[in-house]
Write a sequence for this structure.
């Protein structure tokens, strides 16, 4: 197995585990029922022994109110990027904060419109 593929599977597994820990209302059994799969399939996904099909990926994402691709997003890596951005913002003059906030709101609106049109 290629290193990139292994990392991708590890990210997916970590995200599923984290989401299930954050939402105690979603057990392995409940997840398997919601996506119409066996509990052993969920266990194989969580252990990295199998990869989800596109339809299962989409169904899993919906269970957690996410797009399927978001299950492969490396949130740990993004957190360090966010911290670096916040540190840079902190160094700016305080008068820039409202402008940055306005710009961030604009970007989030654009993202929302994009996900609505493609979702």
């Amino acid at each position: 197995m290629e290193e990139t593929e292994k990392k991708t599977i590890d990210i997916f597994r970590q995200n599923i585990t984290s989401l299930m820990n954050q939402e105690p209302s979603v057990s392995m059994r409940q997840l398997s029922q919601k996506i119409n799969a066996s509990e052993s399939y969920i266990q194989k996904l969580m252990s990295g022994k199998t990869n989800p099909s596109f339809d299962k990926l989409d169904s899993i994402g919906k269970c957690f109110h996410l797009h399927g691709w978001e299950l492969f997003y490396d949130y740990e890596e993004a957190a360090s990027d966010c911290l670096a951005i916040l540190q840079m913002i902190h160094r700016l003059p305080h008068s820039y904060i409202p402008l940055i906030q306005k710009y961030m709101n604009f970007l989030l609106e654009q993202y929302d419109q994009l996900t609505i049109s493609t979702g």
The chain has a mean pLDDT of 85. The chain is about 70% helix and 0% strand. Residues 97-118 form the longest helix (22 residues). The radius of gyration is 18 Å.
